[in-house]
Specification:
- The chain has helices spanning 2-27, 31-44.
- The protein has 64 residues and is mainly alpha-helical.
- It has a domain at 2-44.
- The longest helix has 26 residues, at 2-27.
- 0% of the residues are buried.
């Protein structure tokens, strides 16, 4: 029973995290915040491609 309870709690936290990130990626006012939320979603959700930086967008990596 303990394993099932821990799995349920982990699934709830995962679902909540993905939901908050999806809302942030959609409705955030700052472009950088939307971009970072989308990149994090690409890591957490399998099958979701990572978006390449758009023209004029500043990246954290000075080489690209």
């Amino acid at each position: 029973m303990t394993v099932g309870l821990l799995s349920t709690i982990a699934a709830a936290f995962y679902g909540g995290t993905v939901s908050v990130l999806a809302l942030t990626a959609t409705f955030a006012r700052r472009r950088t915040l939307r971009h970072e939320a989308r990149r994090t979603l690409a890591v957490l959700v399998p099958g979701r491609p990572v978006e390449p930086p758009h023209a004029g967008e500043v990246t954290a990596d000075p080489n690209g």
